[in-house]
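User: I'm preparing a small set of examples for a lab meeting where we compare how different chains pack in three dimensions. I only have the primary sequence for this one, and I'd like the structure in token form so I can line it up with the others. Please keep the answer compact; I'll paste it straight into my notes.
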Amino acid sequence: MDLQHWLNEALANHEKWTAEYGAFTPHSSLQVDPAVFGSALAELQDRLRDNYPFFHPRYAGQMLKPPHPAAVVGYLSAMLINPNNHALDGGPATAAMEREVVSSLASMFGYSEEHLGHLTSSGTIANLEALFVARSLHPGRGVAYSSEAHYTHSRMCGVLGIEGFPVPVDGRGRMDLSALEELLRTGKVGTVVVTPGTTALGAIEPVHLVLDIARRYDARVHVDGAYGGFFTLLAGTDLEPEPWEAIASCDSVVVDPHKHGLQPYGCGAVLFRDPSVGRFYLHDSPYTYFTSDELHLGEISLECSRAGAAAAGLWLTLRLLPLTRDGLGEVLAAGRRAAVRWASMIRESEGLELYQEPELDIVTYFPRTSPLTLSAVDAASHRVMETGMHAAVDPIFLSVARASKAAFAARHPEVEADADGARVLRSVLMKPESEDYLDSLHARVLSLL
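Assistant: Understood. Below is the structure token output for the 449-residue chain.
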């Protein structure tokens, strides 16, 4: 895709639109010396080189990758206007686009047309809103989430002044259902957070089974699909359908288009199955909501000003890569195929050990050390990551995840427990190009052992 061509198109269309309103003289206070601008821009470009190559498949560290060119063009096109999707008079066009993309996300998760939802600036804010509604519906009752859930849940419980209950995980890093039910019997929990795709291991928690248990104790179920939510597109083909199909019966769900949705930061989304929860957002403004009798997005959001450009970027992307298995789903499928194949290659290697079978596109593994102890594994994993990322020639960028002694014992009892835990190598293969680059990546990791 010729990004330069489409950026030029976006700029030309913007100039044509603005010219329709007549010429005016830009204020002198906004004028800058071209030489000064050029110098500052050169400094900016030089400083931006102090980044890891998120765009390249040799970067397999954290959940980072550049947005799709369509998202860049869509975002820029709207950014030049700078609409604010808080109120309809701040962004009528992009507010309509937001409703359309949110409707598409709701359909992906199996929600009916009678849902409530909007985009947010992040998954953290999206989860905050879901827990805010949960607190409003079950005052005095807390929130349960697995010990492998994202830290945002414990943090947001603190913000909201409600009690959080971490639930132990099983041998695959998923919420322990027996421990969950024991906790629910106390009556202290009003909402259970379930994660189909944990950020450390990519473990798919059994949404359908959690839902069955929670309903027996009158507890809501919130799905944190910030990372894994878009894998719903692979349900029934590449992935077992039950956890993903159960999302349609859960009370709320969060997903981050700025992860697997190919969008720039920040673009999250929160959706509620029951639109009546909008009553908890009710507020008034003395100057904002007068241009339309339609619902303003700011009336169903804890955030006020939000970038309309985020909606435009997502809208244009989904026009080209729709929320289908053959559309955006193929982008995710490539990363998952890479993860599954790399796991097979690791199992056959002499120097690496697979820590846990990948379920999505995250692979965890560790060097097979001698002696095979937690302390030796920890040191070797850290050394491989550091050596790879600082190599002057052919660098690779991995990350590590900390695994407890108990987690290691459940998965690898052959590793001597001479420490409280160990770091293992962790690679996120969320760029589809990882599929073709995998042999090079695997060979380079082996060369660092």
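A couple of notes for your slides: Residues 187 and 357 are 35 Å apart (CA to CA). The mean pLDDT is 95.

User: Perfect, thanks.
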